[in-house]
């Protein structure tokens, strides 16, 4: 019994010739016992059949189907998982004179909509098998898609084998992404939701887009029908559909790859991976007006339900800009770190005011007063619902520097708004962007933070370390009391969100001053003290990294200005100098062992 079914003498010759091994590899789909009756559909009429051979299928509709396919009837192949707008598509194609070939549930849906359908198995004369794993993987389908109409030998081969051409292929894929993100799913169920035939059809049609229109998105059905109705020949339209098809399959494959990696590997860093990005909007410009920009959503499985600004809902205001997204992201990431009701004010991605209070109105006032000059035109973020009282306070609060000018903000972001609160806040300004965002989920062991450099990308785990994860080790003669230690923890939580070199001074769960982005730590410290003023006495000071020098430098200057406790990672070869300096001034010094650089 032969292992391969040869559909022609030419195929048989190929299988035994010098390219036999290549041919056999490509014929793996057809390892079936030789059944002469399977050749019937490949013949166009009874007169062409070999004498003396009778076929069980000779009097079925198979030859009629083949005859119509070879007479140049326009054909569309439709196989869909998502059947949105299928009836409109099917009826539209039928109205334009297309013969429609379809599979399984798609065929049933089309028939229910009054569309005449030829099922794929009538073309292939081979039934669906292996629980639907094999439906369209057949030369009678792929030959009709891949054949180039401008190549005579391609058309001759189709005629020889009784294969008609396809002009339109409309396919979307098993909902793998939705399945594996919908909750607990077994490995076996995940595997069964990996589409094989669909991507193969899409890639084949996209490759031959000069002759075949390929559609993977129901939103493109109207454009397709309009194109066909106008009998246009627009190469750009075809190429755009082909690009979209390949991108669709690439995104689909990236989800499968990510899922399979996490099923079998604990390492956060795969040897290679693809990030599936989808444009959400074009932006007016980038960081500066001369730079073009766009905003993309990340469809990585690891980011499903992870929260963040990218999935925020905008309730009001002017469209978001490139810088708005950066600043809103910084504000939201910072405020999401706090458990108590907290307000964070950000300017140019740096928190310039942070305060936690049971009374969120008081927290808001304190956060603004920390640096009212910087807060003007900034972003305000809350980790609690904005109600009518808070909204009114945001709308009416006057600039502390003059007591008259209403505070102006670019963005307000919160996890929710009451109906009354939202209505009041909308009255502050037509341009005020009001965002509702989900709290960021911790990314330990699951998320990667990516950053582009010239010619490559840096990947790291996010800095999700909080004071609760850290041992605050006292290394000085005087230990901090409970209030001072609480202030130190609050300052450390703030300083991890400030650009390096970073210094934060805080007291009573309120940032008093911060210094950021300076090339040396001493200058950042002086900026922080200038903002904190006299309130720095008895406060806590946190540094994002160790102090390289103590005497006549940052540590001694901090002690002389009256802070009660200093929190820093430690690790300098001059740590003992810092200890001795704090002991001299009676200041508590705690080492955290955790650095929080932010470049």
TrEMBL record:
Pathway: Purine metabolism; IMP biosynthesis via de novo pathway; 5-formamido-1-(5-phospho-D-ribosyl)imidazole-4-carboxamide from 5-amino-1-(5-phospho-D-ribosyl)imidazole-4-carboxamide (10-formyl THF route): step 1/1; Purine metabolism; IMP biosynthesis via de novo pathway; IMP from 5-formamido-1-(5-phospho-D-ribosyl)imidazole-4-carboxamide: step 1/1
GO biological process annotation, one example: 'de novo' IMP biosynthetic process
InterPro entries: AICAR_Tfase_dup_dom_sf, Cytidine_deaminase-like, MGS-like_dom, MGS-like_dom_sf, PurH-like
Catalysed conversion reaction: (6R)-10-formyltetrahydrofolate + 5-amino-1-(5-phospho-beta-D-ribosyl)imidazole-4-carboxamide = 5-formamido-1-(5-phospho-D-ribosyl)imidazole-4-carboxamide + (6S)-5,6,7,8-tetrahydrofolate; IMP + H2O = 5-formamido-1-(5-phospho-D-ribosyl)imidazole-4-carboxamide
Keyword Lipid metabolism included in the entry's annotation: no
Residues making up the signal peptide according to the UniProt record: none
Domain MGS-like intervals: 68-216
Keywords: Hydrolase, Multifunctional enzyme, Purine biosynthesis, Transferase
GO molecular function: IMP cyclohydrolase activity; phosphoribosylaminoimidazolecarboxamide formyltransferase activity
Pfam families on file: AICARFT_IMPCHas, MGS
PANTHER family in UniProt: BIFUNCTIONAL PURINE BIOSYNTHESIS PROTEIN ATIC (PTHR11692:SF0), BIFUNCTIONAL PURINE BIOSYNTHESIS PROTEIN PURH (PTHR11692)
NCBIfam families found in the cross-reference section: PRK00881.1, purH
Entry similarity comment: Belongs to the PurH family.
Stored HAMAP family: PurH
Protein name as it appears in the record: AICARFT/IMPCHase bienzyme family protein
Biological source species: Zea mays (Maize)
Taxonomic classification: Eukaryota, Viridiplantae, Streptophyta, Embryophyta, Tracheophyta
